[in-house]
Amino acid sequence: MLLEYQCDNSPFSCPTSPNPTPKHTHTHTLGRIAISSLSLTPLPPPAGCCAVLQCLLGGLPPGADCLQAWKPVLLLCPELTMSANVSLKLLCPVLEQMSRIQSHSNSSIRYMDHASVLLHGLASLLGLLENGLILFVVGCRMRQTVVTTWVLHLALSDLLAAATLPFFTYFLAVGHSWELGTAFCKLHSSIFFLNMFASGFLLSAISLDRCLQVARPVWAQNHRTVAAAHRVCLALWALAVLNTVPYFVFRDTIPRQDGRIMCYYNVLLLNPGPDRDATCNSRQAALAVSKFLLAFVVPLAVIASSHAVVSVQLRHRGRRRPSRFVRLVAAVVTAFALCWGPYHVFSLLEARAHADPSLRPLVWRGLPFVTSLAFINSVVNPLLYVFTCPDVLHKLRRSLRSVLESVLLDDSELGGRSAQRARARSQDERGPLNRALSSTSG
């Protein structure tokens, strides 16, 4: 009896046991094992390859490890050729189903993909320019205070996130396929999560700093320094890196059946354990819940509590009008909640989808959109700095003019104007923005 099988459009057949009962008939992903870059010659393979087919189609007894069964057979099967390294990976059910989703050929969907590529390309360009200018203005053109230190590190976090947007745009442009390798997949995704944690931690620190200024003014006067703020920021960065490690470890490239490549979680990548379903459920839930709590709920709780304390203290003092910096923080926190909230909701739904397959289509449709929304947060923040604090725009214009003058003017003209620019800079540093940023009671 002949059992026919097709892999990578290369049909072949081999004798097998009577009355085979195939359990899986799809290509590449069988059970929870992904087989990438597999090509077979059309010649009838030897018995070793038939054993592989029986394994893949359910010929092994229940509980047998098909992944281990592959390895000795590969050595016995010269007709089994690999166009790339053999990749046999254990996959969770959700990821297995995702790998079988085919690319869309509908023209309207293609137009949406083109529009998405264009929008992400513009966002990446704006994000790099905006955050680079904010870093330049705040870091080089303003007097360094505790508050400018917070803003500087927030802008640095956003710049890192914006620096990954061009690669995400390329991923979209080539048909939602990751072509940049596993190592860069891990790095790219880690920066995304690093920005997520760092933004939440820094916003919490800013709110606590404001609370201490108002509730403990004497202590703040004695201990609140730029050097201390930098040390706190470095500690928060270290904490963000530590929380990013699991996402680096479990990130992987997974081949799809249609030839595309995913850059996604693979929680079975390390020590899958005897019960794969239980491992998938527990690890995916742990990742989703931990980032939801540490990067979203806890920061928002700290921010809300700090704001409540500040409001009560200022009301007792008869001060109700918020300062520019308070309005800036409120705007940045609102943008953070709106951009990252949907992402965390869908991450929790994705964890739930391991046990509830009915949620999977919703997760697959929604996750790309909410991920893009989270990326956009790094583009929105610089605009908030400018529109909430008008003096930033004034300084930005002066800084750009100074750069152009240094490029276009002759040395003699440049030397004649250097003293005038120095005097203007010293006046700007005493301008309304630094007074607003340094205010302890507004």
Which topology of the largest domain does CATH recognise?
Answer: Rhopdopsin 7-helix transmembrane proteins
CATH homologous superfamily heading of the largest domain: Rhodopsin 7-helix transmembrane proteins
**Largest sheet: spatial strand order:** 3-4-5
The secondary structure category is mainly alpha
Return residue spans where pLDDT drops below 50 for at least 5 consecutive residues: 1-51, 53-87, 403-418, 428-433, 435-442
Total count of domains:
2
Mean pLDDT across all amino acids: 73
Number of strands: 7
Strand content: 5-15%
Gyration radius (Cα, Å) is 28 Å
CATH architecture group name of the largest domain: Up-down Bundle
The total count of helices amounts to 14
What string, H for helix and E for strand, traces the elements in order?
EEEEHHEHHHHHHEEHHHHHH
Distance between the termini: 86 Å
State the helicity in percent bands: 55-70%
Q: Outline, from the CA principal axes?
A: globular
Largest sheet composition: 3 strands, antiparallel
Q: What would CATH call the class of the largest domain?
A: Mainly Alpha
Protein name: Prostaglandin D2 receptor 2
Family: Belongs to the G-protein coupled receptor 1 family.
Region (Disordered): 415-442
InterPro entries: Formyl_rcpt-rel, GPCR_Rhodpsn, GPCR_Rhodpsn_7TM
Description:
Pfam families: 7tm_1. It is found in: Cell membrane. InterPro entries: Formyl_rcpt-rel (IPR000826), GPCR_Rhodpsn (IPR000276), GPCR_Rhodpsn_7TM (IPR017452). Residues 415-442 are annotated as: Disordered. This is Prostaglandin D2 receptor 2. With 442 residues, the chain is mainly alpha-helical. The chain has two domains: 2-90, no CATH class; 107-394, Rhopdopsin 7-helix transmembrane proteins (Up-down Bundle), CATH 1.20.1070. Helices cover 68% and strands 10% of the residues. It is built from 14 helices and seven strands. The protein has helices at residues 47-56, 66-76, 93-99, 107-140, 146-173, 182-215, 217-223, 226-249, 276-316, 324-353, 360-388, 390-408, 411-429, 432-438, and strands at 2-7, 10-15, 29-30, 33-40, 80-90, 251-255, 261-265. A three-stranded antiparallel β-sheet has the order 3-4-5, covered by helices on one side. Strand 3 (29-30) and strand 4 (33-40) form a beta hairpin. Helix 6 (182-215) runs antiparallel to helix 8. The longest helix has 41 residues, at 276-316. It is globular, with a radius of gyration of 28 Å. Mean pLDDT is 73; it is low at 1-51, 53-87, 403-418, 428-433 and 435-442.
